[in-house]
Write a structure and sequence with these properties.
With 71 residues, this protein is mainly beta. The protein contains one helix and five strands. The termini are far apart.
């Protein structure tokens, strides 16, 4: 991964969701591709994922701050 990684969740029509850890560059590329629709390859820490952007309802990204413990 070329820059810091973030946990994202991609929500799809029908209620399914996909949680991934991706670089900031991959998140930026995904957000930029959403308007165009079609298929988009996301490089996650676990490997590549091909997403049908026409089925995406939301993309949620966690803040890049780390949390330790219960607070």
């Amino acid at each position: 991964m070329s820059s810091g990684s973030r946990r994202i969740t991609i929500g799809f029509q029908g209620g399914q969701a996909l949680a991934l850890r991706v670089s900031d560059d991959q998140l930026k590329a995904l957000n930029g591709a959403l308007a165009g629709g079609g298929w988009h390859d996301v490089q996650s820490e676990d490997g590549p994922v091909r997403v049908n952007l026409a089925q995406v309802v939301y993309v949620s990204a966690d803040k890049d701050e780390s949390r330790v413990g219960f607070g």
